[in-house]
User: Fold this.
Amino acid sequence: MNKYHLIWNESRHSVGIALIDSQHREIIKRVNQIADGVAKRNQSEAVQEMLGGLILFAREHFAVEERLMVEYGFPDMESHIEEHRRLFQQLNNLINVGLRAPNHNKAALVSAFLTDWAEQHILRADKELGEFLAAKGLS
Assistant:
């Protein structure tokens, strides 16, 4: 494990909605794999492939959250969806810019993305969504 890894902590990261939590665990696992890849020299093809897979998975994950927001009438939907767009853009930037950066910068870029996603989005926006959905009877 390298220093950029994030460890899933159920009490801290869980939003209380099983499907979303499962997807968040998968996202964290994939980001950790990417961090491992960028920490190794000459792994850019493998990292590029992993980033592509993460983009596809993130797109699916965001679609699930957005469908639930629409279905249950989440009041902060517009702001949350805009945050998804911003996070998706950051992920695209990792592919378009990050892989051309010197190797030590790649790990920092991946770490910054992971930290932003986990510490800002999951712990704030997705926790709020989870509480709202739980109040509507979803678990």
